[in-house]
Amino acid sequence: MRNNDGAFYRSFRKMSLPERLLWKPLGDPRTLINGTLWTEKINNPLLYASGNQVFLYRGGQDGERSEILADTQGREYFDPLTGWEFFGRVTPASFFTPPDKHLDPAVCHAHGKFRLFWSQVGQGEKRGGRHRIGLATSTDGLNFTRVGPADGIMDGRAPEIVFHNDTFHLFVELRPRDRGQPESPPGNNWCLYYLFTSDDGVHFHQALDRPVIPPGPSGDWDSFNIATLRIVREEEYFYMLYCASDRTNDWLQNVGIARSLNLTTWEKSPMNPVFGRCVDDWLGSCWYPTSLRIGTNRYFMYEYTGIPLAEPETAYGKPRRTPKFVRGLSVLSNVLLREYFP
What we know:
Layout: H1 6-10, E1 24-27, E2 32-33, E3 36-37, E4 43-50, E5 53-62, E6 65-74, E7 85-89, E8 101-110, E9 113-121, E10 131-138, E11 145-146, E12 154-155, E13 157-164, E14 167-174, E15 192-198, E16 205-206, E17 225-234, E18 237-245, E19 254-260, E20 267-268, E21 275-276, E22 283-294, E23 297-306, E24 326-333
Antiparallel strand pairs: 1-24, 2-3, 4-5, 5-6, 6-7, 8-9, 9-10, 10-11, 10-12, 13-14, 14-15, 15-16, 17-18, 18-19, 19-20, 19-21, 22-23, 23-24
């Protein structure tokens, strides 16, 4: 095992990042619920803009259930720190049959409807339970109605959805057993992303027989696990922000960026990794680097936890003595994402 040493993670870097391309921290966005600051675990954030409204979808806890909550604010006077108005649960109680966990929201707006996809994880997950993708639709982005069977529309987890050229492009994590392959070692949760497409946003078929973005070479920063990606459009390119690890499942130390013209062939930035332990020693792990451009600023929100205090470092820093999982917020000003591709 390697020591919890920030210098080791910075050694992954192949190119130095110019100062202007470093994400500038802004703090933790405040979400008030009934006048009280939300302090419980807040996970898998998603920033999404439609018209003049900005939505923040996120995971939350209600007892033993995990559910999807939403906050909103207007785009004209966007304030990513304190401008959020809490809406509440967008996955109604009726969604919890069977009593699965609802996590990892992904949203797109097409043909007059919002489509919400999420990870529907069975309570028997640790005993080999299935990971499924749930689907619901809405006209306002807040009040959703389930579509499809109660156990979800397909296998997979941690979805991302992009509507382009009248086609829905659904990116989902699949484990070896989801792909009909043996796990080595048994119980391995190692995932990669696969692409599925659909004309109606309900019935999907696999579009590629390979991972969308492959792991890096052995020993590189993203050589083992690639997970929790988000995709944005800027100028003519789609840009993928993805988290990765060189050796652990889900304990994702760094964030990289890739770009594509067609959503199928992706080019990784030679500046990767662009965020995480490689540049910020206070980060232990991060997930879901969602991004939104407002004016000349591009905001990045992500779930993170602090550096594990245990030595040597293990997956999840066990025994875990880390801060709670919280949201972080960073910004790039007057920067276009193409600058990560010199």
